[in-house]
Design brief:
With 203 residues, this protein is α+β, with helices and mostly antiparallel strands. It has 2 domains: 86 residues, no CATH class; 86 residues, 2-Layer Sandwich (Alpha-Beta Plaits). α3 crosses α4. 11% of the residues are buried.
């Protein structure tokens, strides 16, 4: 007879086999649940996982197949001989583009071919306090100094907070851009301008 079956007035020996039986029962239940989950979920999840993993596989022709490589033609002997020519053409195109950009942005100064350039500009100020005419003159004189133009007439009123000024002789294209940029970007004593029009022509 097992010792734990002997009656000794204590309930502890009886608790031990009950605990073991409960553990065995729960382990069996967990195993059944895991098997059911594997059977029911496998048919749904496995194709999706396989399709996802298929994208990680090698290309159809293998890793050494270069049929889809856009640079494959350049590796052929005929194209290798043309590489120096291609490099030369690209270099010439880059140099030509840089030259055009330099010509478009470089300031040459000088005078234009027409008799005069008329500039119509407006002003706005932030508590300047000395009147619109003084503000327009201050901005105008500052900007024509940046293009080395002196001795011109003061800007004349041409509307509400709008003024007209004439430069003789006319301005070339790069000086046009420089003067417009000064009037529209420079702030003099809280005064900022905006070019309404700028054109060159006969007096």
């Amino acid at each position: 007879m097992f010792d734990w079956l002997r009656p000794d007035g204590s309930s502890a020996p009886v608790f031990i086999p009950i605990l073991m039986g409960a553990g065995l029962l729960l382990s069996g239940l967990a195993w059944v649940v895991e098997r059911l989950a594997r059977v029911t979920a496998g048919s749904v999840a496995d194709p999706g996982v396989a399709a996802t993993m298929a994208r990680l596989g090698p290309p159809p022709g293998g890793l050494l197949d270069d049929s889809a490589d856009p640079l494959r033609l350049l590796r052929q002997p005929a194209m290798k001989a043309l590489r120096p020519l291609l490099v030369f053409v690209v270099a010439v195109a880059v140099i030509f583009g840089v030259h055009l950009l330099q010509e478009a942005t470089e300031y040459h100064g000088g005078a234009g071919a027409e008799a005069q350039t008329t500039v119509l500009f407006s002003i706005k100020d932030n508590d300047f306090g000395h009147g619109d005419a003084f503000a327009a003159t201050a901005l105008w004189q500052t900007c024509i100094a940046t293009i080395c133009w002196t001795g011109e007439d003061e800007p004349a009123p041409a509307g509400e907070r709008t003024y007209r000024a004439v430069l003789r002789p006319s301005l070339p294209d790069d000086t046009h851009r420089r003067l417009r940029g000064c009037i529209e970007d420079l702030v003099v004593n809280h005064v900022k301008g905006n070019v309404v029009s700028m054109h060159s022509g006969a007096a």
